[in-house]
Amino acid sequence: MSTSLILMIVCFLALMVIGLPIAYNLLITTVVYLLSADLNIVQLAIKMYGGMNSFSFLAVPFFVLTGQLMLRGGLLESLVKFVNVWFGNFKGAIAIVTIGASLLMGSIVGLAVASAASLGVFLIPMMKKEGYSPAYSAAVMSSASLLGPIMPPSVLMILYCTAVGNTSIAGLFMAAVTPAILIALMQCVIAHRTAVKRGYPSYGKSTWKEKGQATLKALPALFLPVIILGGIFSGIFSITEASGVAVVYSAIIAFFVNRSVKLKDIPDMIVEAASTSGLVLILAGAGTAMAWGIANERVMSLLIEPLSQMPQWAFLLLVNILLLICGMFMDDYASTVILAPIIAPIAWAIGINPLHIGLVFCVNLVVGLATPPFGVTLFVTSPIAGVRIEQTAKEALPFLLMTIGILLLVTFIPDIALWLPESMGYLS
Do 297 and 337 form a contact (C-beta atoms < 8 A)? Predict the structure, then answer.
């Protein structure tokens, strides 16, 4: 191990300990490496530009803007009503509504923290009003928000595929559909059983007329994921083109159908889309620069040889443990740009399908967002509910264990997730 590599590792860990934002950490660490290795500092700009210069990244601001239009355009209320009239007669109805709305809205927003914040402000008070404990309300919202980055379209998966290459974004989206639905269904089962045990109420059975009216009102929101995913999976348009179509469609609904978004709202939405996209691009650029430094030190060749001797199941178990721990302490975007270029090539070298390792990688990091002690969604939902983080974490434990269980099933039985991309011709 060279002195430059040691300095890089020490610098990265030291800056992480003092709490420097991860993007600045990556940039400073790369500069330290370049200087210590006596390399041209211009390499930083070259590698950053290479990491950010991807056509797929154009989809990020469009998908974020779509989410903003849908949230401000009154579509959330219609989705909540839709799920409620169809499933409100079950015990734990409002929790099931929260999970269903998160799955549907998450497929549009695609960001766990955004889903937890935007939906939580609306749904957590509703759960508390129905007699749910504040901690349990926060736990349901925190757990349900994980569906956003798993259910396509997912900004995290776009970032992963761009960071590692050799992985189809559309294929990874397809692989994520089944695990996302399984997690949502099992969350509903847990919510129902908890409601029965604690005596939480249901809404009562809705009439067919009420179901029809709610469905009709929710159709514009329900059609959006169909348009996005149907267009991508059928090959009508690319990921980037799909994001543009999504913006146009959601803008028409928000401005002209529901008329709930005004021209004065546009600057705020653009700022939100720009800030999120800027974060992704900076992390992608800085992560690419640091990954180049690691590759330049031939770290990959040192790791591949011993790890390639491991059975696939042992390697996958090791990856799960590593990523779950990283997800607890580090932002999922940052973890992706740092670890994905290291883990993915090793997985490919030992025969693991690129879509399979990509799914395992992304789902692990998403689960970490709700894993104590530093799960970010716990920190978002707990203040909304007015409870301590530890109270929310305790109530979220059954949801967390179930999600990890499904993650392990997908890890060791890959056909659960890969049957859809295989049937669509995305597996070689």
Answer: no
Nearest to 52 by CA among 277, 239, 285, 274: 285
CA–CA distance, 107 with 147 (Å, rounded to integer):
8
Q: What angle, 0 to 180 degrees and rounded to 10, lies between the N-to-C axes of helices 389-412 and 134-144? A: 30
Please tell me the pTM assigned to this model: 0.81
DSSP state of 56: G
Q: What is the pLDDT of residues 334-378, one digit of tens each?
A: 788 888 888 898 899 889 999 999 999 999 988 888 887 667 788
Angle 6-295-281 (CA atoms, 0-180°, nearest 5)? 100
Residues 56 and 395: their CA atoms lie apart, in Å, by 38
For residue 34, tell me if it sits in a domain.
no
In a domain, 12, yes or no: no
User: Which token pair is 341?
Assistant: 């270029």
Quick one: which of 179, 155, 161 has its CA closest to 355? 161
Residue 20 lies in a domain: no
In the chain, how many domains are there?
1
**Range(s) of the domain holding residue 112:** 40-423
